[in-house]
Known about the structure:
One of its GO terms (molecular function) is quercetin 7-O-glucosyltransferase activity. Belongs to the UDP-glycosyltransferase family. Keywords: Transferase. There is one protein chain. By secondary structure, the chain is an alpha/beta fold. It has 17 helices and 15 strands. α2 links the parallel β2 (28-33) and β3. α10 (281-294) packs across α15 (403-414).
Amino acid sequence: MAVAVPAQGHVKPLMNLCRQIAKRGIRVTFVNAQTIHEKIVAAAKMSGADEVEDNIVLASVPDGLNPDDDRNEPFKLLESLRKTMPATLNDLIESINTSNPNEKISCIIVDLSFGWIMEIAQNMGVEAVGFSVASMAASAIMLHIPKLLEAGLLDTNGSLKNGDEIRLSNDIPLWRKDEFPWSCSSDLKIQKMFFECVKEYKAADKAKWLLCNTYYELEPAACDLYPNFLPVGPLHQPESKSCSNLGSFLPADASCLSWLDTKPDGSVIYVSFGSFAAFSQQQLEELAMGLELSGRAFLWVVRRDFADGSPFVYPGGFLERVSELGKIVEWAPQNEVLSHPSVGCFVSHCGWNSTLEGVSKGVPFLCWSYFADQFHNESIICDVWETGLTINFDENGSIMRSKHEIKKKIDMLFSDNKLKENALKLKEMCAKSTCEGGTSYMNFEMFIDSLNK
């Protein structure tokens, strides 16, 4: 059984892990809150996947909210599940165990942001596996929280009491205070809520196995800091096209793939900020005009709630002017897009899932971080791996990224062969890690062997 945190960036990598387990002949029950379960099922059907893969069973538990509660409010949903899931999950496990005595739940895979579920597994005498959807570097700082609190370096909101940075070891890039996975300096209430979630990583010591969606060669120092974690990523490889969208909340628009077929190799700018980021109308106008000014072909993912929760209103005449140049979709099959030879640049929020996908496909980044660990991922992309550039805010304290800065960085990236060379090196390292005999391959096989015993 696998239990998902109700957020797209958590559900998708956990689903990819379960799909890999299922391919080894092990049956997996994938549990979501009811509202998330319904989104996944609907999106899969709209994407053409009428059936779930063999050995994957989709299940749900009630979210505990009232009928008129806002189910798109993440912290309200998390708080409700924290109260109700111990009982509902226990009932679900007992129901599965009694319905088929030959297929009892023997193991629960727990997203470490839901670390409290470890106790449920313990109470039922079921082994627990901890899974981190973040980088190993971000996992390390979250695992360090108890020590940082004990040492008096952090306050109860997760803010540094003194100084501007923390270094966990000499071999790991330092963490600046505005790069913490729980950082939200503009709203301390939200930051405290994030901080409470990531503190759940302390439950890792209750797990029999600990897995991380990364590969050793990408983060050797961070992996060495916590050798009890098995790097088994990237877990999005390989995909079966029939179910590649399984775990997504939105149906993917595959028409963009045939559009990419018409473009020269390495020529297209792919722009996607994931499932959560939202920007002001004015900032999105600047992005639209920056893409137009670049004069390059672009594929842009624009969700319906992209403009601070509302649909984005394009600048006057924009859609007509770029009709031959650009393709706009509400959601894209990102793994397939980044695999396409025509894609030469990824404008990204630097979420870890997107970062891993871009790295594994050898695509250089234009970084536009939004919140949490994305800022640290951006620092690693630009300063350590040297596979990307930052799209900076305007000078004079502006909170805007201008169309001129966007065009400038696009031009710089496409003229910088070194960025592409570095990106291809990481792609090669990734391929070796996931091939037979590679580090991620061997770690995953070791884990599967333990499940089969």
